[in-house]
Amino acid sequence: MSSELVPGDKLILRPLAQRLGLSPTPVREALLRLVSEQALALDERGSAIVPVMSAECFEEMIALRGDLESRAIERAVSLARDAQIAELEVINARCMDAYARGDAVDVILQNLAFHRAICVAGRSLLTLHALEGLWLRLGPSYATRIGAPLPRFDDVPHPHVRMLDALHRRDLQAAREAAMADVVASCKYAHPRGG
């Protein structure tokens, strides 16, 4: 999810366990779980590998993400408490600071925190679980773009800002549109075909 791995990376059990400071058994179990969730695959030698995602698979996952992100923000519009919206403002400020610094890794981490907080504010925990599965599989696509210029929002406010405004106004349609704009910008940035 944090975009530390790129498609094609191999995760060799013993060096990975050593790097994490764990015994091989829990690392093996974690790798197998990630294989079962299709976040990793096994190569011909049984080593875990980050799969290369086709453009078609990426587009399907982005469409699913758009649907789920829209549902999450819709629920947050009606259920979020003022304190939760204030927390989203703080997370977004950290995200915008990361944008200003050009720190793509921190942007990714703060973006994940922002969208998690929207799900929590909307009491959308099943949606959050489904989104985390998508984020897990999409992370390597974003990793391939680390170092590339971040998306620019010169003509309109960043979609997070628009989502926050819609949450404050309890505007369902504006919130949904802002969530979809965020997903579209994300898709253009990380698309396997280059946007």
From TrEMBL:
Keyword Coiled coil appears in the UniProt entry: no
InterPro entries given in the database record: GntR_C (IPR011711), TF_FadR/GntR_C (IPR008920), Tscrpt_reg_HTH_GntR (IPR000524), WH-like_DNA-bd_sf (IPR036388), WH_DNA-bd_sf (IPR036390)
UniProt entry keywords in alphabetical sequence: DNA-binding, Transcription, Transcription regulation
Keyword ATP-binding annotated: no
SMART domains from the UniProt entry: FCD
A Pfam family reported for this protein in Swiss-Prot or TrEMBL: GntR
GntR C-terminal domain location: 60-185
PANTHER family per record: HTH-TYPE TRANSCRIPTIONAL REGULATOR MCBR (PTHR43537:SF39), TRANSCRIPTIONAL REGULATOR, GNTR FAMILY (PTHR43537)
Protein name: GntR family transcriptional regulator
